[in-house]
């Protein structure tokens, strides 16, 4: 007896040369189990259902059964059981069987109608794909965390260098400190021009300064009270400025890298708060998994641990927000609205993190919309600051009403 | 959403439409399976009660092939199609529009990044079945894919023809069709495109395909041709 064995999304089947199903073991219709066995088939490892099928076949037909399978892993398993096994793919018998897969799904009682089969394959494929995507994304959250920490390190070093540069170059051209507030612009002037005597409209315009600002810088240079410095003394200052500019390039590159990484690792969080803040949340939690398991109340104060513990120790007010304060809608809002917006954002973030970690579903568009609505609501409901003496006042008005 | 002035089927192709706008310009389009939703940055058009989705000939090689007059569009309503190299779903979504709710598109894509985008398209389209897998190993998705009426392949990889043949052995019915986009430049930069087409076509023939038409896609796509073939088991 020659039988064709195949393991499918709905279970394992044995088909004879005429295409009749002689035996089958239907899989339980439970999504987690279905995903698990799908992955097993993909990795060429026989499933429980397949093993049971083979077992039943041996009981019924004995060991001089001849079987045909499509992959090496399955062939190996059957060989080890001592069955005469042929490896052959794309044969007509299986092809015919495969074209009737929806029909067999109904016939075997796996589902009740072929209409339902449509939903079934769709749902299973989505679930399997999401689960594989999550495995691929594994540890990529750690890459994102290192990238954001590197960006934050760069910012610290950059600011440290910026203060040093300003102090140092001010010996030569003290007036520039107030005229150019942007560190990068300041560093460019030092790096590209150097001595204040070489500053002219042409090279300033080339660095992107407007005509007005260029004129102001030039006239300040002409009347500067700073010390004359030789090239020999300016050069080391320029080296520092060069390194700052390189750090700045490195930061840009890292930011770009981080944003594509974050879209992959945590698309929902990223959509909600952007890649930088999203990655800072991951970094504070330690991993996507940890973040996904934190309650919203903790997410709200992530990064404000010091203030939180101080509050716990002294019985003072707990902080209203941690790192999520960086979210523009929070730090731009008036003080009394911030806590409310922070709470709402933290709730959405908790949901987003769970979706990113557990299901891989993209739900951020809905979350974002709900958040925006809530923010608008907060802005209208709490448009005015709460009166400081609200309680006694209210009591008084109530009394007069009575 | 723009209003269309006139809509007619783009004969001889079924379920592909020409949408005429009030400035006199025309667009290729399919009926939107999920009204109100777009997949890439395509236009949506309303005509009567029906919504059409612009089919961008610069973004989709199949659309370009139709506009360049490829012999037939065998992809029909109700068809099961195996789509290899689905990318983020640009063309696959139009195939999904064409086969409709009675059909199915098994969309194989192996890059996780791209799959994340494809999955958001698939979530809205019940006939689009996303499969994160390498098309060189069809046995890995044999448990899910039915026997199909046709294969559409655009993986932009060397040895596309042999990959197609392997998939055909597993899933393509006898008499089934194939559309294969050949990206000449990415297969071998040093050889002239025409020689590469010839070599891939030779491989297809040896693998049981009868090549019916080959269409160069320029000016829409300068480095590609579309091969249309039938499979005889
Ligand atoms: C040119 S793009 C496809 C564009 C798409 N067909 C469209 O028109 O909308 C090629 C895709 O094939 C995928 N790909 C390449 N080799 C593959 C393989 N061996 N298996 C599955 N997908 C592959 C790439 O990741 C890429 O997304």
Show the helix and strand layout:
The complex is a heterodimer of chains A (402) and B (233).
Chain A lengths: L1 E7 L2 E6 L4 E6 L4 H12 L5 H14 L4 E4 L2 H9 L3 E4 L4 H8 L1 H7 L6 H24 L2 H30 L6 H4 L3 H10 L8 H6 L4 H12 L8 H35 L1 H19 L2 H6 L2 H6 L3 H10 L13 H4 L3 H25 L4 H18 L8 H12 L1
Parallel strand pairs in A: 1-4, 4-5
Antiparallel strand pairs in A: 1-2, 2-3
Helix pairs in contact in A: 1-6, 6-18, 7-9, 7-12, 7-13, 9-12, 12-13, 13-18, 13-19, 18-19
Chain B lengths: L1 E2 L2 E4 L7 E4 L5 E6 L12 E4 L2 E5 L6 H7 L12 E5 L5 H10 L4 E6 L2 H13 L3 E5 L15 E6 L6 H12 E12 H4 L5 H14 L2 E8 L7 E8 L2
Parallel strand pairs in B: 1-5, 7-8, 7-10, 8-9, 10-11
Antiparallel strand pairs in B: 2-3, 3-4, 4-6, 5-6, 11-13, 12-13
The complex binds S-adenosylmethionine (SAM).
Describe the structure in brief.
The complex is a heterodimer of chains A (402) and B (233). Chain A is an alpha/beta fold.
List keywords for this structure.
heterodimer, A: 402 residues, alpha/beta, Nucleotidyltransferase, domain 5, Helix Hairpins, Serum Albumin, Chain A, Domain 1, five-stranded mixed beta sheet, 5 strands, B: 233 residues, Phosphorylase Kinase, domain 1, Rossmann fold, seven-stranded mixed beta sheet, 6 helices, 32% strand, globular, binds S-adenosylmethionine
């Amino acid at each position: 007896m020659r039988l064709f064995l195949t393991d499918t999304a709905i279970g394992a089947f044995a088909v004879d040369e005429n295409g009749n199903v002689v035996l089958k073991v239907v899989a339980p219709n439970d999504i987690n189990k279905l995903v698990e066995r799908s992955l097993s088939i993909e990795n060429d490892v026989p499933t429980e259902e397949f093993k049971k099928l083979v077992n039943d076949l041996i009981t019924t037909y004995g060991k001089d059964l001849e079987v045909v399978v499509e992959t090496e892993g399955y062939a190996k398993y059957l060989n080890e059981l001592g069955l005469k096994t042929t490896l052959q793919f794309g044969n007509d018998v299986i092809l015919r069987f495969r074209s009737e897969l929806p029909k067999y799904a109904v016939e075997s009682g796996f589902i009740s109608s072929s209409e339902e089969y449509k939903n079934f394959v769709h749902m299973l494929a989505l679930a399997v794909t999401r689960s594989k995507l999550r495995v691929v994304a594994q540890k990529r959250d750690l890459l994102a965390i290192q990238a954001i920490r590197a960006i934050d390190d760069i910012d610290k070093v950059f600011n440290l260098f910026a203060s040093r540069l300003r102090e140092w170059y001010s010996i030569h051209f003290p007036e520039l400190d107030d005229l150019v507030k942007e560190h990068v612009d300041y560093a460019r002037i030092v790096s590209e021009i150097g001595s204040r005597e070489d500053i002219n409209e042409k090279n300033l315009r080339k660095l992107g300064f407007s005509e007005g600002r260029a004129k102001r810088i030039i006239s300040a240079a002409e009347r500067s009270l700073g010390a004359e410095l030789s090239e020999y003394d300016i050069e080391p200052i320029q080296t520092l400025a060069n390194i700052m500019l390189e750090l700045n390039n490195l930061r840009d590159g890292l930011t770009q890298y981080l944003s594509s990484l974050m879209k992959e690792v945590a698309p929902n969080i990223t959509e909600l708060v952007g890649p930088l803040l999203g990655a800072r949340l991951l970094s504070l939690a330690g991993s996507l998994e940890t973040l996904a398991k934190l309650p919203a109340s903790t997410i709200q104060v992530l990064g404000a641990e010091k203030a939180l513990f101080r509050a716990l120790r002294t019985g003072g007010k707990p902080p209203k927000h941690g790192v999520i304060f960086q979210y523009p809608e929070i730090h731009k809002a008036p003080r009394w609205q911030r806590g409310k917006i922070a709470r709402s954002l933290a709730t959405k973030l908790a949901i987003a993190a769970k979706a990113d970690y557990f299901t891989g579903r993209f739900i951020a568009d809905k979350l974002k919309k709900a958040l925006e609505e809530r923010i608008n609501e907060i802005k209208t409901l709490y448009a005015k600051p709460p009166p400081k003496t609200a309680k006694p006042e209210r009591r008084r008005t109530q009394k007069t009403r009575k | 959403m723009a209003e269309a002035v006139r809509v007619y089927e783009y004969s001889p192709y079924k379920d592909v439409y020409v949408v005429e706008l009030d400035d006199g310009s025309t667009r290729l389009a399919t009926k939107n399976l999920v009204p109100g939703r777009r997949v890439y940055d395509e236009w949506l058009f309303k005509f009567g009660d029906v919504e059409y989705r612009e089919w961008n000939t610069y973004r989709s090689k199949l659309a370009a092939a139709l506009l360049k007059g490829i012999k037939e569009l065998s992809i029909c309503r109700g068809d099961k199609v195996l789509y290899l190299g689905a990318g983020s779903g640009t063309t696959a979504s139009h195939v999904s529009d064409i086969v409709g709710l009675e059909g199915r598109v098994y969309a194989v894509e192996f890059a996780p990044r791209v799959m994340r985008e494809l999955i958001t398209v698939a979530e809205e389209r019940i006939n689009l079945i996303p499969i994160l897998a390498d098309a060189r190993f069809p046995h890995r998705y044999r448990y899910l894919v039915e026997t199909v009426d046709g294969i559409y392949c655009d993986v932009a990889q060397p040895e596309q023809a042999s990959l197609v043949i392997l998939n055909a052995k597993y899933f393509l019915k006898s008499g089934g069709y194939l559309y294969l986009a050949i990206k000449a430049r990415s297969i071998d930069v040093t050889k002239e495109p025409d020689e590469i087409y010839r070599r891939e076509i030779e491989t297809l023939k040896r693998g049981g395909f009868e090549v019916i038409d080959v269409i160069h896609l320029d000016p829409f796509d300068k480095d590609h041709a579309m091969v249309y073939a039938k499979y005889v088991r």
